[in-house]
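Structure first, sequence second, as always.
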């Protein structure tokens, strides 16, 4: 049975002293140390056989309130006749002094309480206190004394018969005061707890941890009493072959060069007591019962899955105890925000911005513990577009027709059911066609007067409708997109309307559409998001002017895009309170027919986006974005109706800007309230996609063919993605 996997240790802790210290290494104590927690300011009460008051391992940290609980009658002081209490204290809190070993909470204070009955210790055996007598009344007095004098955790590496009512009452009082009790499980190798531990567990009402022992491999020690019928508060820790015995304050090596190791659940208990001290220092608002619950819930599962009668709740894992547990939320907020979930999904225009982003903040877990987190690490980036699949990976049936007064065009999905041939026969779909075809998009344009045109479309944006009314010539390329109409987000359009009026030599067109922004992934809890994609409403309103100057055709326009819940297609967690954004696009397009069948064209779209101030979204949250395309085409190259074109383009890309967020940046346990600050989240990608395409289309073999040679540098605006290059061929015909 393995132990918790040891985590990497910072160089300042990876010393000979640390490597000699069995418990901290096995139970990942250095994880807490790396965060700055070492037990300082927390008092561990060691109720035992006394302590070596002159040991340098405890210098300056033995509380002045330490005492012999019998000092009124014995006059013997804290120094014991055996090493049991000293070794227990060493495991819990030996100093970081580059000698000997390192305790779990190496800077904690020690309240040493000698409680062995006067004259009962007759052995120098350091492995056990069994030769010393302990009276329940004296232990009860020691527990009360420790509680009254600031102990956060009381270590009882003791055993024996069932505790009397006085001791159980003292345990109950300590737990009620917020003190954690850690008691050894017993060393009889029994399938049940030692009666002493079993009785204290029942008296503790959730504030007691019973410590069992495992070896260096995480296997239950032969001598350790098992969890048995009381597994709920049983936690195993290293208690077998613990280094090392001290004499006169130094590591003892016998004349033959050997050092003495000791074993027992007596030394599992202080491993856990030290862990309690680390948690109490890091999270001072925790109650004792909460600390117990955290250590039990975060334990490394051993033995049978879940709580069992051997390992109880598992093996101590300090690293997991110092990670958020349960539901998390921004400090000061109430909306849950799961750190394992997606807190935001960016849009195609933002490319790989999430990979380099940083968004430091503070979250609280179920126990109101504050954790500093980088929320940018939970952002999901939009998947790069796959234009090749969209160009040749679908089956469509196109139907169009018209005259000077009206034009109609439809695209129909012709894939059919799996394993079933499509049965498209006519534009009007009857019942048996409905299962194998659906209208993908449609457009109708009407000339209602010599100078007035109107058009409407479904599943097609207003930009294409406007271009049709204006009579713009837009060369068709399979891969390199046209900058006109590129909003930089995944979007589906429900309906679009446009009206064009000829005013002298200028054409004035007003247009609108509505649809949905499709986020790259859901940003709600995982249980709510499987197989779904979030949709947020998007409305576009535009006005444009067009005019032809001889061989030069031009168009200029402004578009206002309103998003209800997204920011240029990006969706963020509800905890941020994003309530949408407005974008103003400036569009410019021109085409020059400079020779017979030759045309040089270009388009530019510049966008300015501003997020609405709401929730955590602060003022100054804005983006600047840009898309452009430049193309050269020649008609009639090999036949009268074919076309050859070369295009260079950049898809819509956020050139600068991001979100300003008012987030918790610190947290006070004294006031249980956060301190807020502004955190900026850059949404400008590192990558920049540039696409080049050489495309031909025209009649071929009684049908229509197209061929494309393309190259995409940093596709999707991802600097780390390999360049995308290839050839695309397609052919279609009517039957």
């Amino acid at each position: 049975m393995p132990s918790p996997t040891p985590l990497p240790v910072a160089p300042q802790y990876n010393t000979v002293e640390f490597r000699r210290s069995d418990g901290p290494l096995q139970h990942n104590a250095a994880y807490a140390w790396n965060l700055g927690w070492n037990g300082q300011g927390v008092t561990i009460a060691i109720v035992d056989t006394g302590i070596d008051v002159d040991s340098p391992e405890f210098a300056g940290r033995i509380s002045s309130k330490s005492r012999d609980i019998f000092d009124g009658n014995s006059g013997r002081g804290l120094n014991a006749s055996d090493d049991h209490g000293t070794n227990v204290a060493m495991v819990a809190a030996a100093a970081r002094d580059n000698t000997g070993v390192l305790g779990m909470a190496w800077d904690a204070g020690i309240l040493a309480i000698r409680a062995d009955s006067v004259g009962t210790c007759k052995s120098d055996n350091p492995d056990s206190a069994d030769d010393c007598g302990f009276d329940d009344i004296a232990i009860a007095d020691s527990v009360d004394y420790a509680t009254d004098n600031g102990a956060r955790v009381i270590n009882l590496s003791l055993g024996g018969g069932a505790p009397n009512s006085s001791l159980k009452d003292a345990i109950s009082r300590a737990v009620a005061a917020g003190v954690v009790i850690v008691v050894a499980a017993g060393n009889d190798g029994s399938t049940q707890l030692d009666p002493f531990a079993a009785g204290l567990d029942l008296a503790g009402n959730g504030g007691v941890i019973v410590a069992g022992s495992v070896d260096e491999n995480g296997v239950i020690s032969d001598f350790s009493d098992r969890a048995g019928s009381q597994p709920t508060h049983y936690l195993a820790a290293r208690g077998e072959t613990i280094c090392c015995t001290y004499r006169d304050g130094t590591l003892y090596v016998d004349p033959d060069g050997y050092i003495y190791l000791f074993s027992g659940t007596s030394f599992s208990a202080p491993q856990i007591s030290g862990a309690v001290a680390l948690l109490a220092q890091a999270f001072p608002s925790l109650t004792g019962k909460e600390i117990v619950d955290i250590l039990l819930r975060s334990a490394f599962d051993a033995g049978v899955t879940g709580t069992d009668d051997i390992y109880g709740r598992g093996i101590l894992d300090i690293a997991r105890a110092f990670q958020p547990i349960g539901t998390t939320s921004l400090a000061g907020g109430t909306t849950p925000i799961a750190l394992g979930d997606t807190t935001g999904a960016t849009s195609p225009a933002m490319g790989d911005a999430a990979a380099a982003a940083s968004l430091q903040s503070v979250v609280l877990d179920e126990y109101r513990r504050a954790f500093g987190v980088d929320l940018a690490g939970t952002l999901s980036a939009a998947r790069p577009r796959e234009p090749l699949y969209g160009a040749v990976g679908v089956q469509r049936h196109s139907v169009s027709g018209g005259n000077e007064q009206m034009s109609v065009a439809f695209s129909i999905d012709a894939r059919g059911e799996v394993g079933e041939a499509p049965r498209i026969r006519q534009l009007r779909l009857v019942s048996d066609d409905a299962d194998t075809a659906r209208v993908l998009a449609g457009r109708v344009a009407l000339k209602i007067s010599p100078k007035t045109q109107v058009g409407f479309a479904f599943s097609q944006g207003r930009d294409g409708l406007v271009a049709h009314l204006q009579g713009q010539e837009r060369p068709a390329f399979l891969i390199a997109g046209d900058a006109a109409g590129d909003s930089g987000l995944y979007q589906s359009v429900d309906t679009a309307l446009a009206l064009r009026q000829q005013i002298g030599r200028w054409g004035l067109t007003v247009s609108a559409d509505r649809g949905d922004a499709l986020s790259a992934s859901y940003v709600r809890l995982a249980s709510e998001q499987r197989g779904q994609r979030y949709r947020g409403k998007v409305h576009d309103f535009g006005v444009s002017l067009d005019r032809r100057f001889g061989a030069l055709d031009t168009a200029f326009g402004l578009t206002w895009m309103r998003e209800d819940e997204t920011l240029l297609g990006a969706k963020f967690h509800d905890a941020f309170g994003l309530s949408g954004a407005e974008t103003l696009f400036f569009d410019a397009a021109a085409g020059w027919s400079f020779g017979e069948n030759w045309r040089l064209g270009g388009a530019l779209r510049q966008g300015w986006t501003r997020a609405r101030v709401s929730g955590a979204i602060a003022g100054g949250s804005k983006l600047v974005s840009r898309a452009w395309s430049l193309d050269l085409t020649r008609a009639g190259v090999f036949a009268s109706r074919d076309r050859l074109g070369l295009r260079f383009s950049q898809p819509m890309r956020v050139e600068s800007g991001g979100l300003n967020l008012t987030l918790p940046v610190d947290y006070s346990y004294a006031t249980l309230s956060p301190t807020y600050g502004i955190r900026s989240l850059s949404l400008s990608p590192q990558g920049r996609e540039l696409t080049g395409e050489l495309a031909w289309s025209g009649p071929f073999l009684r049908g229509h063919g197209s061929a494309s040679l393309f190259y995409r540098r940093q596709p999707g605006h991802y600097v780390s993605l390999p360049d995308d290059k290839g050839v695309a061929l397609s052919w279609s015909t009517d039957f």
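Margin note: DSSP finds 14 helices and 33 strands in the chain.
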